[in-house]
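Entry 14. Ran structure prediction on the chain below.
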Amino acid sequence: MGEIVKDSLRYPFSDWKKFLIFGIISLIAVIFTIAGSIIPYLFLVGYLIGFFILGYSFKIIISSLSSNVSLPDFDDEGVMFKNGIKVFIVAFVYSLPAILIVLVVNYLSSPSNIIETLSALLSGTIDGGIFLNLLEGGPGVIIAVLYMILVVPVLLMAVAHMANNSSKLGSAFNFKEIINKIATNGWTNLIAWYMLTALFVLIIYEIGTIVNNITNVINPYIGTIFISLILIPYISIFISRSVASFYNGFNLQISGKYITAIIILILAFLVLSFSADNISNIGNSNNITSYNSTTNTYSGSGVSFNFPTSWNVQTNYGSETDILLFNNDSSETPSFQLSIMPNPIGLSDQDTLDSLQNIQPQSGSQEILNTIIKVDGNTAYENIYTFNDPSISTVTMTDQQVAFVKNGKTYILDFMAPTTDYNNEKQNFDIILNTLKIK
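Output, structure tokens:
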């Protein structure tokens, strides 16, 4: 079993040229997907390129099933595109129960999220935040996640079975043959291989996240390029090679003690990751200094501002930086959020600012104010509206958003409070807004 992992870890580097070509294709797909949040329907181009990415990953499985030792060529583009669509269909069908669980539970708890998502799809502008809203489903999401954890290894074997049967789509749904193949290799071996592969994917992803956070300090674009050009292609190739090797029955012998060791390693990794996140959040206090008896000063991530001493701070790092402030009296929802993200690739500061002017509040909201103000000397768009969303609060909320652009970065300030308390709480937001400085 260990030989499968060793071979799969080395395999992406069997041909650096093809690896980088795959990375460039992945990067282009990400660029178009990000641009789709600004330019209607452009994200569809990124999704179409995604079919080529799936098709090449599928081609790796076909090549590996034939025991080839290096990455396959980028030829037969039409075949790769068709096979990418087939892989997508297979993944969608196997994932459909989880999708339905999330949609049903989420619709019952918050119909507005479903309506908002459909509206965004029809208008041609959609982003990750909308999908995150869609996934707010409590127990439904937990059930869906558990289902996906169980079905993924069977799904991967179904894709390999399709690759082993002349890429015929129906082969991926020939459950009798797939189950017999898994039984031949051993269900225990499948579980052990799945956990071992997942462990290394988690490790690779964690390493990539660390590199991304480090490079974000230099320039956020570097992190995005690294993830798209190196991390995503490497993980895709690693998984494809590993899937083919297991399906072929390559060196599957493993004892019970190794399975136990794998489980312990996965649990230890998750605990360490959770602890690291907590340490990171605790470390946010290093960015806070006392200003006076009523306010503290936050300084970090290229910004500084004052905020009430009764509020707690949490900073999340990723493709964007989110600085969250929680009022101790109402800790369920951030009272304030400052999101910092790089401008879409190819857009100037002015183009990005113009696009922010057209951002619409969520479905079912009532606009109160839409105006232009100055923040730290920068032109900013301010929008205030009220809305009702049971997934956020049981009462009517007022949301004040301020957005501006400076030096290639977009800054979005979001202050939220119950409508009945908004006028009293607004002075706290004004403290942040009036003292915000971009370094």
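The two ends are 52 Å apart (CA to CA). Will compare against last week's run tomorrow.
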